[in-house]
Amino acid sequence: MDGLLPSSGKSADITLDDAALSDEDLRLAFNDDLLCENHRNLCVDEGTRRLVSEDVWRRLRVYFPTAPEFKSGAQTCQNCKRLAEESQQTKDLNRVIATDQKQSLSELYMDKNRPQWRPGVSVLNVVNREFLDQWKMFLREPNRREPVWNVMNSTFLCPHGGFLFQPELIGISEATELITYVWPTEWTIIRKTFRVDAEIEISRIEEEDGNVTFICSPDLCQDCCVAREFQELKEKQEYKDAKIYVRKIASDFKDDVSRTSQEASSLEGSDRDDPEFTQISGNKRKKSIQENETNSPVEKSPKIDNSQLRRSSRHRKMRGEKELTVSSTLTLRDLKLEIMRQFSVAPFDQHLMLEGIPLTNDQAKLGSLKILPGSVLYLKIDEPCEDPMLIDDLTRATCPEEGFKGTGLLGGQ
């Protein structure tokens, strides 16, 4: 008769010293890892056990008399075996479902040939991006994830059943980042394959005079749309420890703001002028240029559709720009004092502008000035102060006197 032992890399020899160190719990736990947790029968996983001779097992029984004993060829837990078979069947079914959905919606899965408004395109449908993200994760790992069956488009509708977003702003406004367009043919497959709680269709009508009108079904609920935009703006204006950027300019204020904005927009689709990108991939680019110069004739690069490029959400720093961490409750004066520490410029020499609008109310909160996380402020220095003693005095004036700490003379105590 052969016995079963837990599989491990340790020797099966057990000394009296080892037995002396074992307490009652250890003796009871010996060979317990051969048992399934729910039914206390022999586990179906063959990797957890190995056979030992009858002589070895008799010796082990002396030290572990209550240990579970299974003979060679013992039957495994039938309940666990049935559950394992059902789990394997579910995994096989999920793989079949994932394969079928990949084939039927291949362009949607691969993010290719995505819908855009252009001549000849008059109708598009809307899908929740959260559904797409979960669906793609299932297709990538069908053995580890459950299929996604529900398309929750009702989150884009108000309690009255109207659409909550301006259709002309979809894909442009940050508030519409959870909305994704799909082709009508793709929508037909989605409607047959998944459970859709609401169908949303956007139509684009171009008139003879060139005016473009968007019509959505269900109709746009103007009141709820305005209320949603107001609530989102209010939430954005309340933040803490957010990052903003201050960009110093030296030439004419408005002209330089316009020029700098054009430079920033030209970088949106390319990393070539990004210092970090240049530092990381500079050697690779030089090598590629040298190879192109030595190889002749030079083949033309394939034309890239810029509309299909994925834009980077990372802020691109520019020359003369610094990053500041602020909260919406700070005043503009507090911000100017922080800028003074970063740029060594007195507050009365600072002229700030946000999106072409000068910021002049020093007592206003940053949130009320619509300075939001990620905003870029332009700083023009007017006759910068060259006296370092004055800057030092202003910096120290913003800090409370430590000598009065703990007394009534210190404000706020």
Describe the protein's architecture and organization.
The protein has 413 residues and is α+β, with helices and mostly antiparallel strands. The chain is 36% helix and 15% strand. The strands form four sheets. It has a five-stranded mixed beta sheet. A four-stranded antiparallel beta sheet has the order 5-3-7-8. Strands 1-2 form a two-stranded antiparallel sheet. A hairpin with a 5-residue loop joins strand 7 and strand 8. It is flat and about 95 Å long.
Please provide the count of β strands. 13
Count, helices: 12
Largest sheet report = 5 strands, mixed
Structural class: alpha+beta
Portion of residues within helices: 25-40%
Order of helices and strands: EHHEHHHEHEEHEEEHEHHEHEEEH
Strand content: 15-25%
Sheet with most strands: strand arrangement? 10-9-13-11-12
The mean pLDDT is 77
> What separation lies between the terminal Cα atoms?
84 Å
